[in-house]
Structures are given as C-alpha cells and as structure tokens.
Amino acid sequence: MNTITNAQTAQTAQPHGQPDRPREMPLKALPAYEQIKRYVIRRICEGDWKPGGLIPSEMELVKEFGVARMTVSRALRELTAERVLTRVQGSGTFVAPQRYESTVLEIRNIADEIADRGHRHSASVLTLEPSDDPLALEALGLASGPAFHSCIVHSEEGEPIQYEDRYVNPKVFPDYLQQDFTVETPNHYMVRLAPIQRAEFRIYAQKPDAYVRRHLMMDIGEPCLQLWRRTWVGDDVATSVRLWHPASRFHLAGNV
C-alpha cells in the first residue's frame, strides 16, 4: 500500500511569509487512511478547500494516492463522523462549516474579538513548559506525561483582560512549546492546524488567587469570571483551558 508522495505533501507547504507548520509524525509511519485524513485536514486548514466546497471524489483520491477504494472510503467516513466533512448522496463530499456551533457560547480567538472592537491586542507569555500535573493529564485523557502547559495574559490596549491557563495534548500539537504566542494566540494556532470537532465548558464566578489577581491588575475582593473548556480533535482531547476574566472588564453575550 502506497504512502502519500513528496509531491503530494509539497502541495500543502506553508506559503512564504506565513508561520511554519509544526512538524508532524512522518506520514509513512501512519496507516494509509490516516495519511489521507491528515492530507484532507491540511488542505482545509491552509484554505485550499473552503467550507461548503466540493472535495475530490473517492475515485480521484484513489488514483492520487494509489490505495484501495475502501481505504479512501474509511478516511472520508471518519472525517464525516468527526464533522470535518459532509457527504451528500448523489452530489459528493463537501467541507463542513469550520466552526463550533453552540446556542450558548462560541469559541473565538480573543485577538479577533479585540480587533473587532477596533483595539490592539497584546500578549505576555508567563509559562511555556512540559507538565506532569495529574489533574491536567486526567483532563486530557493521557495515561502519562508530559502535557504541554502555557500561561498567558492577554491585554486590550495595554490593559489585561484575560489570564489563560492552558494544557495541551502533545499527541495533537507536538510542536506547541516551540511557538511564539506573543505573535499568534494558542487558539488561532490550534484552530489553524486542526478543526475543533466538539467542546464542553463550564462558567464559574470565583475569586482568583493572588498570582492571577496580580497579573490581571485586579483589586483584592474584585469578582472574576472563570471559563473552563475542553475541546476535541477527532477522538483526542486537544486542550483543557481555564480563562480568568475580571468581571469589570468582561461580559458574555450571544444569540440563541
């Protein structure tokens, strides 16, 4: 059974001037259907195949990769189950809308939210390290560590509005620790590489500890809103994050 060729891989190279894509497990080390899944996801993430657009047919992919039709069918079937693709009988396979759908909360990049208000986003990276925290490993569904851990303060026009405490699955994002998160937020980096299939979240009203309070420049006793969220890519928990927001500088809004 053939693997994806160098020429096929080259089609997905990052355009000049764009952030480098993290190195992944060598494609030849993966099952053929998984190679095809990675290829499809990469073409979507890099914008070659747009949401709602028709992708190549099963037979076209069979010819391109030199594999059995059942291998291509499995890859597309799994991507459909993961809501990366949608299949319409008699019409073909299409790229699904790449967004997290919720009547309560939409997952957005904080830098985009700030830009939409016409303001400037900046970030300060406090921690970027491997971690064996047992609660984090449990949240990510990892039997052993390390997980990747980052703590970042996001500011709007120089005023801190969010403390982000994030744990990341290294299986999904192996080069997370090599990124510059003052240039690109973790949210943007991860969504660029792998579309979110599902998420769960909880919202709490809590007092932050002294460390978080100091970095958010909050007064003692000032209320804080904390959002806890986990997201999945395929069958893997991709990230578990706690986002702290000073109540005086944050509001939650949406449409049902």
Automatic annotation (TrEMBL):
PANTHER family: MANNOSYL-D-GLYCERATE TRANSPORT/METABOLISM SYSTEM REPRESSOR MNGR-RELATED, TRANSCRIPTIONAL REGULATOR PHNF-RELATED. Pfam families: GntR (PF00392), UTRA (PF07702). It comes from Paraburkholderia panacisoli. Keywords: DNA-binding, Transcription, Transcription regulation. InterPro entries: Bact_HTH_transcr_reg, Chorismate_lyase_/UTRA_dom_sf, His_ut_repres, Tscrpt_reg_HTH_GntR, UTRA, WH-like_DNA-bd_sf, WH_DNA-bd_sf. GO terms for biological process: L-histidine metabolic process; negative regulation of DNA-templated transcription. Residues 1-26 are annotated as: Disordered. Residues 1-14 have a biased composition (Low complexity). The gene is hutC. It comes from the Bacteria. The keyword Transport does not apply. GO terms for molecular function: DNA binding; DNA-binding transcription factor activity. Residues 30-98 form the HTH gntR-type domain. This is Histidine utilization repressor.
